[in-house]
Amino acid sequence: MADPPLGIDRIQGLLPHRYPMLMLDRVIEIGPESITAEKLVTVNEPFFEGHFPGRPIMPGVLIIEAMAQAGGLMIIHERPELRGRGVAIVGIEKARFRRPVVPGDVLRIDATMSRTRGDLVWIRAFARVRGTTAAEAELMAAFVDWEQPA
């Protein structure tokens, strides 16, 4: 099996997120205005302790976060001149959750850039498990300059 285009080390070099908020494990494919990434969902995830004991389900907000991180990587790949700036989600529309995501699932995220305007980028994202849509959303991202802590 060939190495993925972006493994965890390269992802960490591009995104500021770290455990427990880094939601991607590898990028399968990245190209012009599209990305396919994966999150390996394990029972050891810290959120499963409280959501829900006895029947663990990945919180929808974290599925959206995984889609947003994939979108951020896609944007950074597409517009490398913007590396070093932060990417923040400033809008979520048409979010739908279709099936629960549970330990043992591989969450496959497909995202495309639907349009851009200045520092704003619109992303259409799908999260699937074994080919079945678990969640989908339209995200709006903005590039921001993070203030340095005092």
Strand elements, count? 6
Largest sheet properties? 6 strands, antiparallel
Strand proportion: 35-45%
What gyration radius follows from the Cα positions, in whole Å? 15 Å
How does CATH name the architecture? Roll
Number of domains: 1
Structural overview:
By secondary structure, the protein is α+β, with helices and mostly antiparallel strands. It has a single domain (8-144), classed as Thiol Ester Dehydrase, Chain A (Roll). 17% of the residues lie in helices and 40% in strands. The longest helix is centred in the middle third of the chain and has 19 residues, at 60-78. The chain starts with 7 loop residues before the first helix and ends in a 6-residue tail after the last strand.
Summarize the structure.
The chain is an alpha+beta fold and 150 residues long. The protein has helices at residues 8-14, 60-78; strands spanning 26-31, 34-40, 86-97, 106-117, 120-129, 132-144.
Question: What's the layout of helices and strands?
Answer:
Elements: H1 8-14, E1 26-31, E2 34-40, H2 60-78, E3 86-97, E4 106-117, E5 120-129, E6 132-144
Antiparallel strand pairs: 1-2, 2-4, 3-6, 4-5, 5-6
Summary keywords:
Thiol Ester Dehydrase, Chain A, 6 strands, globular, 150 residues, six-stranded antiparallel sheet, alpha+beta, 2 helices
